[in-house]
Amino acid sequence: MIRVLLAEDQAMVRGALAALLGMEADIEVAGVAADGEEAWRELQRLQPDLLVTDIEMPGLGGLDLAARIARHELPVKVVIVTTFARAGFLRRALDAGVRGYLLKDAPPERLAEALRTVHRGGRAIDPELALEAWTEADPLNERERQVLRLAGEGLSSTRIAERLGLSHGTVRNYLSEAIGKLGAANRVEAHRIARQRGLL
Q1: With contact defined as beta carbons under 8 Å apart, do 93 and 80 qualify?
Q2: What does pTM read for this prediction?
Q3: What pLDDT digit, counting tens, does each position of 80-118 carry?
Q4: DSSP the chain
Q5: Domains of the chain (ranges, CATH numbers)
């Protein structure tokens, strides 16, 4: 029996996924969570085989949750089920140790099969998205991504420099590089473009 924890902030989607998986003879929905922090607590309490989670949830998102699981070396495997059909999100998910990445508009039977594949130690990635991620380069390096993410939170260059232990001039250079690479007019637009492409 494959024991699954579902983490999804939309109640209707959460209920539909639970009902769908409940029809499978070899899959048990051990628990559900409405946000990332609740999922984290339930993971430790229930110790399921798999976590099925969305990317964006209140507080702790699915990618941050996956990264926390990897840092703490929990034995649970993570499968993302999301509407975000963007190569940037897939790359970040794989970097966080995610084993499966499916889109919510995929055929229902694909989810159960993906969970079985991941449970056996394999990967289950939406094939079209995998091809896009393979062919589309990520223009930002990790430092540019950090600086742009903080700029998007409204921090000034001085505050970003303090937060990251960098000089003010270095932060301005990173922001300038990110703006140029994304073809943006300013840091606000660069942050918006990067978010849309799943790069942050």
Answers
A1: yes
A2: 0.70
A3: 998 877 777 888 898 899 999 998 888 888 999 999 999
A4: -EEEEEE-S-HHHHHHHHHHHHTSTTEEEEEEESSHHHHHHHHHHH--SEEEE-S--SSS-HHHHHHHHHHTT-S-EEEEEES---HHHHHHHHHTT--EEEETTS-HHHHHHHHHHHHTT--EE-HHHHHHHHHS-----HHHHHHHHHHHTT--HHHHHHHHT--HHHHHHHHHHHHHHTT-SSHHHHHHHHHHTT--
A5: 2-134 (3.40.50.2300), 142-196 (1.10.10.10)
